[in-house]
Amino acid sequence: MKNSLTRTLIIAAAALSATACQQETSVDTGETKTVEVTVGLPQGISSYAGGQLPEGGFSNLGGAYNVDPAQYDLRYIMEAWTDETPSRLAYRQTVTVDDDFINTSVKFTARLVAMEYNFIFWADFVPQTTSEDHVYNTSSTNGLQEITISSEGRQAGNEYADAYYASKPVDLTLSGQSIGKVELTRPFGKIRLIATDAVDGQLGDRPGTATVTYGTDLTLPGTFNALTGKASGSVAAGQYTFTVYQETATVQGYEPLEDAYIIGSDYIFASDASTSYAFGVQVFSSLDQNRKIGEKQLSQIPLEKNKLTTLVGNFYSNEGDVEIIISDTFDNPENI
Asked: Which three-class secondary structure string do you get for 219-286?
């Protein structure tokens, strides 16, 4: 795997079959202990290993399946913050995985002063050959306690906007203290749009692109604290254009939808409480990118953390309904 090693003040070493970057600061003197942590993606994802994929396409899954490893790596970050007031960053390390995101766990090894800590974990997608911030900024003074969206704005409609997090308190003053394996979860809800009606157009016509518009006055959470799991702040929801594609879609409660059109998807930081959003969808012809072949205004669309909200139905005509389906833990094969 690629080597992108950087160090600052060193108190610990890392071992892993992946790339490692370290930022480590001694916070005290006295007894030290070695801590080993294995970090991976949700168990539901790994249960698809060995080719046991659900029937249909992958739009119901997340970035670990849909992001191209030829273009992106999965970047893991671990931080250790002292459990004191004010809290201090004692350790930070970055590891990148360049292939097989689903099945590759990473291992952090650190030697730290025997104190109480809060360990924080984050994983997101970055372009190959770098471990620097891309979709999300993680390098502020508060590190993973203040993750923000990059200055380029939300990467709506892109699977590489997916990410994962976890946090765990650890008391290194206790004997036999072990963190074990940490399984990450998402800070987002995912919204997916599926059109099942037929295009009333020229021979060979089909949807080419779709534009999703949240409105100029609508904002979404723009900051995430991976220690508390809380989303805050605001960023313009804006508008994004999605390149429509076909798949045999997997939707809870439906038989596989053959040749359905995926006309949009989005990852949105979610609060602990259920939140609803409104947006408009315009669909344009594959034969004439300026010809609108469908339009829908949607309201009260629910979004929940680590859940998939699927809107399926008629998007080209006013006839028929669009059904809203929420799936728990959308990488878990037991619940899809």
From this structure: EECCEEECCCCEEECCEEEEEEEEECEEEEECCCCCCCEEEEEEEEEEEEECCCCCEEEEEEEEEEEC
